[in-house]
Amino acid sequence: MTVLTQPLDAEELAHLTRRWGAAPVEHCHLEVDTPFLTREHQRLLSDGRRAEICYVMIQEEISAGLLLHTKHIYPPGAYRLPTGGVHPGHTVLETLAREVYEETGLVFGDAQEQLRLEGFLGVVAYEFHHKTLGQRFPFATYHFLVRMPSGAVLQVQDPSEEISDWRWCPLTELPAVAESLASLGERVPAWGDWGRFRALSHHFVARHLRP
Protein backbone atom coordinates (compact mmCIF):
# COMPACT_ATOMS: atom_id res chain seq x y z
CA MET A 1 0.00 0.00 0.00
CA THR A 2 1.30 3.45 -0.93
CA VAL A 3 1.92 5.70 2.07
CA LEU A 4 0.78 9.18 1.10
CA THR A 5 3.03 11.89 2.50
CA GLN A 6 3.17 14.59 -0.20
CA PRO A 7 0.61 17.37 -0.77
CA LEU A 8 0.28 16.37 -4.42
CA ASP A 9 0.54 12.65 -5.05
CA ALA A 10 0.47 11.66 -8.73
CA GLU A 11 -1.26 8.33 -8.08
CA GLU A 12 -3.95 9.94 -5.94
CA LEU A 13 -4.58 12.68 -8.50
CA ALA A 14 -4.82 10.05 -11.23
CA HIS A 15 -7.45 8.19 -9.21
CA LEU A 16 -9.52 11.35 -8.76
CA THR A 17 -9.19 12.13 -12.47
CA ARG A 18 -10.36 8.66 -13.49
CA ARG A 19 -13.43 9.03 -11.32
CA TRP A 20 -14.45 12.61 -12.14
CA GLY A 21 -12.40 13.72 -15.13
CA ALA A 22 -9.59 16.24 -15.40
CA ALA A 23 -9.69 19.09 -12.89
CA PRO A 24 -7.49 22.19 -12.57
CA VAL A 25 -4.40 22.28 -10.38
CA GLU A 26 -3.29 25.85 -9.60
CA HIS A 27 0.04 26.74 -7.97
CA CYS A 28 0.48 29.69 -5.61
CA HIS A 29 3.50 31.11 -3.81
CA LEU A 30 2.87 32.94 -0.53
CA GLU A 31 5.31 34.99 1.53
CA VAL A 32 4.21 34.58 5.16
CA ASP A 33 5.47 35.29 8.64
CA THR A 34 4.68 34.75 12.31
CA PRO A 35 2.06 34.09 13.65
CA PHE A 36 1.02 32.13 10.56
CA LEU A 37 2.15 28.48 10.87
CA THR A 38 3.74 29.14 14.27
CA ARG A 39 1.08 30.27 16.75
CA GLU A 40 -2.03 28.66 18.21
CA HIS A 41 -4.98 28.41 15.79
CA GLN A 42 -2.71 29.08 12.79
CA ARG A 43 -0.44 26.02 13.04
CA LEU A 44 -1.62 24.60 9.76
CA LEU A 45 1.20 22.02 9.57
CA SER A 46 1.91 21.32 13.23
CA ASP A 47 0.18 17.92 13.36
CA GLY A 48 1.90 16.59 10.26
CA ARG A 49 -0.95 17.15 7.82
CA ARG A 50 0.21 17.02 4.21
CA ALA A 51 -2.81 18.78 2.69
CA GLU A 52 -6.45 19.56 3.37
CA ILE A 53 -9.86 18.96 1.84
CA CYS A 54 -12.40 21.71 1.27
CA TYR A 55 -16.01 20.59 1.00
CA VAL A 56 -18.21 22.88 -1.05
CA MET A 57 -21.61 22.00 0.37
CA ILE A 58 -24.73 22.82 -1.61
CA GLN A 59 -28.42 22.07 -1.16
CA GLU A 60 -30.57 20.61 -3.93
CA GLU A 61 -29.90 23.68 -6.06
CA ILE A 62 -26.61 25.61 -6.21
CA SER A 63 -28.72 28.77 -6.35
CA ALA A 64 -29.55 28.19 -2.66
CA GLY A 65 -25.93 28.97 -1.83
CA LEU A 66 -22.73 27.43 -0.49
CA LEU A 67 -22.21 26.53 3.15
CA LEU A 68 -19.78 28.71 5.11
CA HIS A 69 -18.79 28.47 8.74
CA THR A 70 -16.97 30.46 11.39
CA LYS A 71 -15.30 29.46 14.65
CA HIS A 72 -15.04 30.93 18.14
CA ILE A 73 -11.33 31.49 17.56
CA TYR A 74 -11.74 33.54 14.37
CA PRO A 75 -11.97 37.33 14.17
CA PRO A 76 -15.59 38.56 14.10
CA GLY A 77 -17.21 38.15 10.70
CA ALA A 78 -14.58 35.75 9.31
CA TYR A 79 -16.70 33.13 7.54
CA ARG A 80 -15.19 30.63 5.11
CA LEU A 81 -15.68 27.34 3.27
CA PRO A 82 -15.04 24.43 5.66
CA THR A 83 -11.83 22.41 5.41
CA GLY A 84 -10.12 19.51 7.15
CA GLY A 85 -6.54 18.31 7.39
CA VAL A 86 -5.23 15.30 5.42
CA HIS A 87 -2.74 13.45 7.58
CA PRO A 88 0.16 11.31 6.28
CA GLY A 89 -1.07 7.91 5.16
CA HIS A 90 -4.68 9.06 4.72
CA THR A 91 -6.31 9.70 1.37
CA VAL A 92 -8.21 12.86 0.58
CA LEU A 93 -11.45 10.89 0.17
CA GLU A 94 -11.07 9.26 3.59
CA THR A 95 -10.46 12.68 5.06
CA LEU A 96 -13.46 14.16 3.27
CA ALA A 97 -15.85 11.60 4.78
CA ARG A 98 -14.35 11.98 8.26
CA GLU A 99 -14.33 15.77 8.31
CA VAL A 100 -17.83 16.18 6.92
CA TYR A 101 -19.19 13.83 9.57
CA GLU A 102 -17.27 15.46 12.44
CA GLU A 103 -18.44 18.91 11.46
CA THR A 104 -21.99 18.30 10.22
CA GLY A 105 -23.07 14.84 11.41
CA LEU A 106 -23.91 13.88 7.82
CA VAL A 107 -22.61 10.81 5.98
CA PHE A 108 -22.19 9.81 2.34
CA GLY A 109 -24.39 7.14 0.81
CA ASP A 110 -27.07 6.25 -1.70
CA ALA A 111 -30.11 6.78 0.52
CA GLN A 112 -32.22 9.89 0.05
CA GLU A 113 -31.31 11.26 3.49
CA GLN A 114 -27.56 10.94 2.89
CA LEU A 115 -24.94 13.17 1.29
CA ARG A 116 -23.93 12.83 -2.34
CA LEU A 117 -20.41 13.46 -3.56
CA GLU A 118 -21.03 15.34 -6.81
CA GLY A 119 -17.50 15.89 -8.06
CA PHE A 120 -13.89 16.93 -7.71
CA LEU A 121 -13.35 20.63 -8.46
CA GLY A 122 -9.54 20.65 -8.38
CA VAL A 123 -6.55 21.61 -6.26
CA VAL A 124 -4.77 24.73 -5.14
CA ALA A 125 -1.13 23.85 -4.39
CA TYR A 126 0.83 26.30 -2.25
CA GLU A 127 4.42 26.99 -1.38
CA PHE A 128 4.69 28.97 1.84
CA HIS A 129 7.92 30.90 2.30
CA HIS A 130 8.13 31.71 6.00
CA LYS A 131 10.34 34.76 6.53
CA THR A 132 11.19 34.24 10.21
CA LEU A 133 11.74 30.50 9.98
CA GLY A 134 13.59 30.85 6.70
CA GLN A 135 11.89 27.74 5.35
CA ARG A 136 9.57 26.76 2.53
CA PHE A 137 6.57 24.55 3.15
CA PRO A 138 4.41 22.82 0.50
CA PHE A 139 0.68 22.38 1.06
CA ALA A 140 -2.47 21.80 -0.99
CA THR A 141 -6.25 22.18 -0.80
CA TYR A 142 -8.44 19.59 -2.60
CA HIS A 143 -11.94 20.87 -3.39
CA PHE A 144 -15.02 18.63 -3.57
CA LEU A 145 -18.62 19.44 -4.42
CA VAL A 146 -21.03 17.86 -1.93
CA ARG A 147 -24.83 17.93 -2.11
CA MET A 148 -26.73 17.67 1.16
CA PRO A 149 -30.17 16.08 1.44
CA SER A 150 -33.28 18.21 1.66
CA GLY A 151 -34.21 19.07 5.23
CA ALA A 152 -30.90 17.91 6.70
CA VAL A 153 -29.88 19.42 10.04
CA LEU A 154 -26.24 20.27 10.71
CA GLN A 155 -25.04 18.81 14.00
CA VAL A 156 -21.38 19.19 14.99
CA GLN A 157 -20.06 15.86 16.29
CA ASP A 158 -16.62 17.05 17.41
CA PRO A 159 -16.69 20.01 19.84
CA SER A 160 -12.96 20.56 19.30
CA GLU A 161 -13.82 21.92 15.84
CA GLU A 162 -15.07 25.04 17.71
CA ILE A 163 -17.63 25.87 15.01
CA SER A 164 -19.80 28.74 16.25
CA ASP A 165 -22.06 29.44 13.27
CA TRP A 166 -23.04 28.42 9.73
CA ARG A 167 -24.48 30.51 6.93
CA TRP A 168 -25.40 30.05 3.27
CA CYS A 169 -23.62 32.25 0.76
CA PRO A 170 -24.83 32.78 -2.83
CA LEU A 171 -22.19 31.69 -5.35
CA THR A 172 -22.16 35.22 -6.79
CA GLU A 173 -21.05 36.57 -3.39
CA LEU A 174 -18.13 34.16 -2.95
CA PRO A 175 -15.59 36.59 -4.52
CA ALA A 176 -16.63 39.17 -1.91
CA VAL A 177 -16.06 36.60 0.84
CA ALA A 178 -12.61 35.96 -0.63
CA GLU A 179 -11.81 39.68 -0.64
CA SER A 180 -12.98 40.02 2.95
CA LEU A 181 -10.60 37.23 3.98
CA ALA A 182 -7.74 38.70 1.92
CA SER A 183 -8.13 42.05 3.66
CA LEU A 184 -8.53 40.58 7.16
CA GLY A 185 -5.08 41.86 8.13
CA GLU A 186 -6.29 45.44 7.80
CA ARG A 187 -8.66 44.81 10.71
CA VAL A 188 -6.74 42.16 12.65
CA PRO A 189 -3.05 42.20 11.62
CA ALA A 190 -2.22 38.88 13.32
CA TRP A 191 -4.67 37.11 11.00
CA GLY A 192 -3.48 38.76 7.79
CA ASP A 193 -1.46 35.89 6.29
CA TRP A 194 -4.11 33.37 7.30
CA GLY A 195 -6.75 35.45 5.55
CA ARG A 196 -4.68 35.80 2.36
CA PHE A 197 -4.13 32.05 2.33
CA ARG A 198 -7.82 31.27 2.87
CA ALA A 199 -8.92 33.76 0.20
CA LEU A 200 -7.16 31.81 -2.57
CA SER A 201 -9.37 28.75 -2.16
CA HIS A 202 -12.52 30.88 -2.31
CA HIS A 203 -11.37 32.59 -5.51
CA PHE A 204 -10.62 29.13 -6.94
CA VAL A 205 -14.13 27.84 -6.23
CA ALA A 206 -15.71 31.02 -7.55
CA ARG A 207 -13.83 30.55 -10.86
CA HIS A 208 -14.47 26.84 -11.34
CA LEU A 209 -17.91 26.11 -9.87
CA ARG A 210 -20.70 26.61 -12.37
CA PRO A 211 -24.45 26.85 -11.56
TrEMBL record:
<dbReference type="InterPro" id="IPR015797">
    <property type="entry name" value="NUDIX_hydrolase-like_dom_sf"/>
</dbReference>
<keyword id="KW-0378">Hydrolase</keyword>
<dbReference type="GO" id="GO:0016787">
    <property type="term" value="F:hydrolase activity"/>
</dbReference>
<protein>
    <submittedName>
        <fullName>NUDIX hydrolase</fullName>
    </submittedName>
</protein>
<dbReference type="InterPro" id="IPR000086">
    <property type="entry name" value="NUDIX_hydrolase_dom"/>
</dbReference>
<dbReference type="Pfam" id="PF00293">
    <property type="entry name" value="NUDIX"/>
</dbReference>
<feature type="domain" description="Nudix hydrolase">
    <location>
        <begin position="47"/>
        <end position="193"/>
    </location>
</feature>
